TrEMBL record:
Organism (species): Intrasporangium calvum
Domain of life: Bacteria
Record carries keyword Nucleotide-binding: yes
Ranges where the ABC transporter domain occurs: 10-237
Transmembrane region(s): none
GO molecular function: ATP binding
Short name of any one Pfam family annotated for the protein: ABC_tran
Protein name per the record: ABC transporter ATP-binding protein
Keywords: ATP-binding, Nucleotide-binding
Length: 250
C-alpha cells in the first residue's frame, strides 16, 4: 500500500471527456481525500462511470489531468495500488470462485501462503465461503458481482474504485459490504463508490453529486442535509437536482 501521508488519494483538474459526439465531463475538478469512503452519486448517464474510468486510467481524455496517489492515472506504479470493480462482471465463467480470485491475486504478485490467505480472507469478506468451489457460470447475478468485488479486493489496493458494488444485493449483504468498506477506510484505504441507493450515502464520509457531467456538490452527508433542509439523502438529492438546474452550488 502506498503511504499517502495525509495527501489526497485523487486530484482531478479541469477534466474534459468526450465520448462519441458527446461532451460527457465538461471541465471537472475534484479532490478525493485519502482514508475516506467517497460516494459518487448522480442520475443514470450523469458521468459517474466515465469519471471512475478516468481515475483508473482507462478513459481517453480530451484535456485536464488526473493524479492518483501522486502519479498520473493509469501509470505503471499504480498497477497494484488501484482496484477497479466495473459494472459488468469481468471474471472467468469457466473457473470457480476460488480460481478466479487466485488468478487475480497471482496477477498482482501474490504467491504461496500469502496468496492462499488473501484468497480465503476475501472469499469470507464477500460471504461466498459456501460456494467457493462452484463454477462462476452457475452463480446468481448477485453472487457473480461479489466475485468481481473479491477480485478487486484481493490485492488490498490503496485505492478502490467500485462501480455500484451493492447493486442487486439484499439488505443484509449490503450492510456487511458497507461495514467492510468502512473497515478498509479505517485502515487507510481510500474508496470511491458509485451508487443509486441513497440510504448508502449516509455511510460515506463525503458525497460527490454529478448531474450531466457537472459537479453539483462535494459535501459531507451532514452538509447535504443541512444545506437542502431535507431529512434524508434521497429527498436532499432530488431537491438539489431540481433546484439547481445543473449549476454547481458548492
Ligand atoms: N462508449 C460510449 N460512446 C458514446 N457515449 C457514451 C459511451 N459510454 C457512455 N456514453 C455516454 O456518456 C454519458 C455518461 O455515461 P456514464 O456511463 O459515465 O454514466 P453513469 O452516470 O455511470 O450512468 P449509470 O448510472 O447509468 O451507470 C452518457 O450520456 C452515456 O450515454
Amino acid at each position: 500500500m502506498i503511504e499517502t501521508e495525509g495527501g489526497p488519494a485523487v486530484v482531478v483538474r479541469g477534466l474534459n471527456v468526450v465520448r462519441g459526439k458527446r461532451r460527457v465531463l465538461p471541465d471537472i475538478s475534484l479532490v478525493v481525500p485519502s482514508g475516506q469512503v467517497v460516494g459518487l452519486l448522480g442520475p443514470s448517464g450523469s458521468g459517474k462511470t466515465t469519471l471512475m474510468r478516468a481515475i483508473v486510467g482507462v478513459q481517453i481524455v480530451e484535456s485536464g489531468s488526473v493524479t492518483v496517489l501522486g502519479h498520473a492515472a493509469g501509470s505503471a506504479q499504480l498497477r497494484r495500488e488501484v482496484g477497479y470493480l466495473t459494472q459488468s462482471p469481468s471474471i472467468y465463467s469457466d473457473l470457480t470462485i476460488r480460481e478466479n480470485i487466485r488468478y487475480f491475486g497471482r496477477a498482482l504478485g501474490l504467491r504461496g501462503a500469502a496468496l492462499t490467505a488473501a484468497v480465503d480472507r476475501t472469499i469470507t469478506e464477500v460471504d461466498l465461503d459456501s460456494h467457493a468451489d462452484q463454477l462462476v457460470r452457475d452463480l446468481s447475478g448477485g453472487q457473480e458481482s461479489r466475485v468481481s468485488l473479491a477480485c478487486a479486493l484481493v490485492g488490498r489496493p490503496t485505492l478502490l474504485v467500485l462501480d455500484e458494488p451493492t447493486v442487486g444485493l439484499d439488505p443484509v449483504l449490503r450492510r456487511d459490504l458497507w461495514n467492510l468498506f468502512r473497515d478498509l477506510a479505517a485502515n487507510g484505504h481510500s474508496l470511491i463508490v458509485s451508487s443509486h441507493v441513497m440510504d448508502e450515502a449516509a455511510r460515506c464520509d463525503r458525497l460527490v453529486l454529478l448531474r450531466e457531467g457537472r459537479l453539483l456538490a462535494d459535501v459531507t452527508p451532514a452538509e447535504l442535509l443541512e444545506r437542502t433542509g431535507e431529512s434524508d439523502a434521497d429527498a436532499a438529492f432530488l431537491s438539489l437536482v431540481e433546484s439547481t438546474g445543473g449549476e454547481e452550488i458548492w
